[in-house]
Specification:
Helix content is 18%, strand content 18%. It is of the alpha+beta class. The protein has a domain of 92 residues: RRM (RNA recognition motif) domain (Alpha-Beta Plaits), CATH 3.30.70.
């Protein structure tokens, strides 16, 4: 049985290795890297309430603490006091779980996370993307029940949409 290698262009971004920086040879041209080879994804810590000067990033597996600090300072002009990194373990969904769709079943790969303590006056708060639900009053519930009844009437006469439900 022969093993086929997957081309690098088809690998996901988190699996691609970073090519080594070219060595400088005396008398040769200056080496330049136009775009950063690493990537960082801002994530929200849902377990704990974090202060505004702490930010969590999912980072490329080959990044070090110094790389994270230089990335934020040089590209985004953000002061960084301290960086901690740790690796999360991957896990596999159960195959026979009824709570998950078929597209969600499978394996979640391990990742590397960086906890960054921002310095100076830099703070970050996640925006609220979804409005909080307010408590509905009894009038709203009565109105919703009326709409629900109309939908049920339409559902019973699905094969005759042009005939009104009272016609029988």
């Amino acid at each position: 049985m022969a093993f086929r290698r997957v081309p690098l262009r088809r690998l996901p971004l988190w699996k691609k290795p970073i090519p080594p920086y070219p060595l400088y040879v005396e008398g040769g041209p200056q080496n330049r890297v136009l775009l950063c080879q690493f990537w960082m994804k801002l994530i929200q810590n849902t377990k704990y309430e974090m202060p505004n000067d702490r930010v969590h990033f999912e980072i490329h597996p080959q990044m070090s603490k110094l790389d994270v600090k230089q990335y934020l300072e040089k590209i985004y002009n953000v002061d960084v006091l301290k960086v901690r990194t740790y690796r999360t373990t991957g896990y596999t969904f159960e195959k026979n779980s009824l709570l998950l769709k078929n597209t969600d079943k499978g394996r979640i790969p391990p990742s590397k996370v960086a906890c960054v303590h921002l310095g100076g006056e830099h703070t970050f708060t996640f925006p609220t993307l979804f409005k909080e639900e307010k408590e509905s009053s009894t009038q709203d519930q009565v109105f919703e029940m009326g709409e629900l009844q109309k939908e049920l009437n339409l559902a019973t006469n699905w094969e005759r949409p042009s005939i009104p439900p009272w016609f029988g």
